[in-house]
Each structure stands twice: as C-alpha cells, then as structure tokens.
Design goal:
With 285 residues, the chain is mainly α. The chain is built from ten helices and no strands. α2 packs across α5. The radius of gyration is 21 Å and the shape is globular.
C-alpha cells in the first residue's frame, strides 16, 4: 500500500501528520512574515539608488534562508532545540536563552494556528488535491494577515502568486468552475477598485490599498464570483467591529488606518470551509 493510499484510508493519521507538519511550517511562516517586508525595503532602496544614478547600497545577504535566525537584542543564534514549534517557547518561558529578552507570544501563536488549521484542512478535504490547495491557501493567508498587520502592505509577489495558484487549481474545477474563477478574479479586483475611487472622489482620501484589490481578486480566483458577496460582507462587518473596538478601548484615532487585508483573509478561510452554506444564505447558487 502506497503512502498516499494509507493516508486516504486513515483519516486520523493524515490529520495528525497535517498537524505536525503544519506546526513546522508555522515556524517557517514566522520567518517569512518577519523577513519579506525587509527584503522588499532592501529592493526598494536598490531601485531608488539606481533611479538616482547612485551606486547600489552594499547590503549584506538577506533572504528567507540567510542569515540564520537570531535574537535581535543580543545576536544569539537560535539553535535547533530552541526552534521546536511551540515547545521551545514554553521551555524557554518566552525568553531568549542568551540575554533573557522576552520573545513575542505571537511566534508560538502563528505556529499553533498553522498546525490547527492544517489539521482542519486535511480533516475537511482529506489527502486530495483539494486538501493540498486548502493547505497552500491557508499558509498564504496567514502570512498576508500578519504582514499587513505589521506594515499595512500586501506584497504583490504573494497576492499575485495566490491568484494564479487559484486559477491553476480551478483548471480542474477543484474549488470552482474555471469560468467562475476567472470572472471572480476580475470582479474581485474591480469591486474594491471601484470602492477605492468612489471613496477618494467623495473624500479626497484613499480608503484602502491596491493590495486589497489583488487579495480579493485572488480569493475570487479560488472560490468563484459567487463567493464574493459573502467574503466582502464578512470582512467588512468584522473590520468595522474591530475598528470601533480599537477606537473605544485604545482611543485609536479615526485618522489612523486599519489594515483590511487580515479581514479579507479571515473571510477567505471561512469561505474555504463554509462556502456552500454562505452562498446559500446569500441566495447565490
């Protein structure tokens, strides 16, 4: 019996494996979340220097692999035993073993969320093409959520890759018919693009970034145009509730922008698992 056949016949094994692999991938996603914005900044600095006719800045190699992870306070390199998902953070009591600086609880939270959502994806879709797609979509949405929270940026390299990946899966109708996926990508972009320009013409200010258009286009490519009303409504309601809560509890000024990408990502995950009931609720076949 092949390994894939074994996973197909043993849901408990496949879900357990997905949890373990998801925890490990969550550790890598923390690296992506932290480093991609800095990689983008380095690229922008190089491009700006080129436009000004200046020599490119002499920057040390910095990517998803190099340099090794280290404490930002003391430079202590993270060892393999200190990099075990969730457990290492608990064992270290959330502090660097070199200098005792507190390590953010967000690191184990991302690892745990990735592991649990990976298990749910495989439980829901099994060891199938849909299960693989659900995992890739989940990983990407987690990365986009935290990058947008930190920087209010949704990198094109990630959102556009997600769009094309959704269309690729739907060549075989894994999540939606190809025609619905193509229309969903177009409609998703144009919907928020229209909202952006209406808001700008009415107020003279920008209400959202272009990355939000591309993320909704990507979700349309994954789930088809039928899912867009539910995604937009869910993201808007949750985003409005969080925004009001921030203004009340933290005295978060209305002029301070709130990223919309995380709420689109959350709505996308809900659609992944509850797409049919949501579409039925909104009266869309």
């Amino acid at each position: 019996m092949g390994f894939l056949a074994l996973l197909a016949e043993s849901p408990e094994l496949s879900v357990g494996l997905a949890l373990a692999v998801g925890l490990a991938i969550g550790s890598f996603l923390n690296v992506v979340i932290l480093r991609v914005p800095r990689m983008m900044e380095n690229e922008w600095n190089q491009q700006a220097a080129e436009v000004r006719g200046e020599p490119a800045p002499d920057l040390a190699t910095f990517n998803l692999v190099t340099p090794r992870s280290q404490c930002p306070s003391c430079g202590h390199q993270i060892t393999a035993l200190e990099n075990v998902p969730v457990l290492s953070w608990l064992f270290l009591r959330g502090r660097c073993s070199g200098c005792g600086t507190r390590i953010s609880a967000r690191y184990p939270m991302v690892e745990l969320a990735t592991g649990l959502l990976s298990a749910v994806a495989v439980w829901r879709f099994g060891a199938t093409a849909a299960g693989l797609g659900a995992l890739l979509l989940t990983f990407t949405l987690i990365v986009l959520t935290f990058i947008d929270f930190d920087t209010q940026l949704l990198p094109d390299d990630i959102t556009l890759s997600l769009l094309w990946l959704g269309l690729l899966f739907n060549l075989w109708g894994v999540f939606a018919p190809l025609q619905a996926a193509v229309i969903g990508a177009i409609a998703g972009y144009l919907l928020l693009w229209s909202v952006y320009w209406l808001f700008k013409l009415a107020t003279g200010r920008e209400g959202m970034g272009y990355g939000d258009f591309k993320l909704l286009a990507a979700l349309g490519a994954w789930f088809g145009w039928q899912a867009l009303p539910a995604i937009i409504l869910l993201a808007s309601v949750v985003g409005a509730a969080v925004g009001i809560a921030l203004m009340v509890l933290r005295r978060h000024g209305r002029e301070v922008p709130i990223p919309f990408g995380p709420y689109l990502a959350g709505a996308g995950l809900l659609t992944l698992y509850f797409g049919a009931p949501l579409s039925a609720y909104f009266g869309i076949a």
